[in-house]
Amino acid sequence: MKSLKRYQYEKYAVLCSLAYPRVFKQTRYGFDPNGQRTIANRYGKTMIRILWSKDKEEAVIVIKGSHSIGDWLINCAIWKRSCSNLGLDYPIHAGFHYLLNQESSPSHKRDTLGLSVFEKTMAIASALIEDGKRIAVTGHSSGGAIGCVIADALEHKYPKSIKRIVTFGQPSIGGLRFRKKYQLAHKTYRICCDLDIVTFLPPVPIFYWHVGKMLWLYNGRIYENTPSFVRFGRSVVSWVMRPLSYHLMSKYIRNKDFFDDR
User: Fold this and answer.
1) How high is the pLDDT of residue 194?
2) Where are the beta strands (DSSP E) in 4-106?
3) Which of 23, 138, 166, 240 holds its CA 20 to 30 A away from the CA of 40?
């Protein structure tokens, strides 16, 4: 697996962050004026943005996390459902399965009723791939989880069409069968920050597994593939010791800039 470069991390992190506001001006970030298609959820709220430029090989699928209390409750549906209707040979988290299969409200003049979020995303991405694009997928929270499933489905349909997958604060998606069948682990980067509790969900060890390379941003460093129990243990110890750390002289030295240079 190739390493994730800093500029790549920053690009996907910015796109994930800016995907949440209602209005997103893609031209400010190097995409064409007509290089954006949005995919709405069942309530008509934008859930996925697909971005591209004619002169660039890479198109990017950006997926938001949970939008509402209802979506958070859906994340609690931790039983599994088969993805055979998506063309994939494994079951995944039932909540994520629902997010993919919910009907997508029309958000473009070409949109029609009756298509699911998954079907609409696949149709738009497939047209871009057939036009010579390779696809990068990025998403936050549950958006990262369903992004992995979308990417895997595209890779099954169009081998070598996926450039990379970068997720932020992503919960696990499926069980051991999913982990064995998922074919993009070597292109998947799962970013975790400090003690982000969502990255430990669902809280059912063995029943759920993560995939790809985990990059843990913690204490000013990047750790690779740190086991969950080690990550949790270090974070708890850090919390317990933090009040004592404020007594160290290094803290006092670091705060010298508060004083005027007189």
Assistant:
1) 82
2) 36-40, 46-51, 58-63, 80-82, 91-93
3) 166
